[in-house]
Amino acid sequence: MKITKAQLRQIIKEELEGFSKSHPDDEWYLESPLSAEQEEEAARASLPRDVDFKAISKGAEMGKQEYIDLLTTPAFQKDKRTKELGY
């Protein structure tokens, strides 16, 4: 099956638009606020009050068990960001 350059451009454009919509700006996405339930879980884990999702994900990436455990709690398992990180 042959496709024209115009068809190829359209396919690429559609793929890029879909990617942009499904992968918002990472910084904003990771730094968006925790839910009240997640804040409670973080407090139980004795993490700083101002901890955000980015800090939690970085702690987990570094292998810090308290952060990994936090991501496995029900409050964080409901968050699609947690699933996208593979926890």
What does this 3D model show about the protein?
The protein has seven helices and no strands. It has 87 residues and is mainly alpha-helical. The chain has a domain at 25-84. Helix 4 (53-61) packs across helix 5. The mean pLDDT is 84.
Question: What is shown here, in short?
Answer:
The protein contains seven helices and no strands. It has 87 residues and is an all-alpha fold.
Describe this protein with a few key phrases.
87 residues, mainly alpha, 7 helices
Order of helices and strands: HHHHHHH
Distance between the termini: 41 Å
Radius of gyration: 18 Å
The main β sheet shows up as: none
Total strand segments: 0
Topology:
Layout: H1 5-22, H2 26-31, H3 36-44, H4 53-61, H5 65-71, H6 74-77, H7 80-84
